[in-house]
Structure of DUF559 domain-containing protein:
Amino acid sequence: MFIGSHAIAEGRLTRERLRSLGYRRLVQGVYADPALDVDHRLRACGVALLLPAGTAIGGHSAAAWHGAPFAGVHEAVTVVRPAEVEWKGPRQVRVHRTDLATTDVELVDHVPVTTALRTAWDVAALEPLGTAVAALDAMVRAGSVRLPQLEHLAERGTGRWGVAKVRRAFGLVDPRAESAPESRVRVALVLAGLAPVPQFHVQHHGEFLAKVDFAWPEAKLIVEYEGAHHFEAEQIVADDQRYAVLVAAGWRVIRLSAPDLRDLDSVVRRVRDALAGC
């Protein structure tokens, strides 16, 4: 990847060839080989070419380096900067002014990225609760940070900007979640007072039947989130067989998919109604 104006100034390209050769624009002024698969992390790498000294890729964008590559390709890239560095960045960048020590930043493949612990704090302080917890779950699951580290960070964060949001998010972290959608569903359920058992092993007469995303064992209720691969032909058949076994054993199953994430209040109502009717 390269900065277009630099390539033109050095004589490696003309403006006409930059347009005609089909280079992919990552952010304003930064281009990449069109053969590359563009995701949020690649766009963040492009932004890194523009960063002034003392700044870094941070927050939800930096989480991609620490086990949580969940930011969408079209989401603004998060950059953190100290007060003494004035930089606004191009349109596709979200710049957050904050205290930033040199120890908060590490260089990974020539990209300045906030450290895992600093990233965890900024994700919790800057992002919506469900988004933050999903990233934190993944970071803990990946081993980038540990739960005791988050607890210690929250304890000594008194007086820091965003500490209330951070403590709330940290308190909801559960690395048993196996995907970002699972984390978001769990957060909505917990906040509604309907805390499930994540990754529950269902047994019937001593025989293991299945591991399910969420369960309320006493009510024999299961909630499963089904990602895109669950809608492939062979998986549909396997899922139907699996759920038939669970239903035959006396369990009720609520199946969720991507559209349900747009209305988590409705998901909560479905679960509450199911629990009330047990």
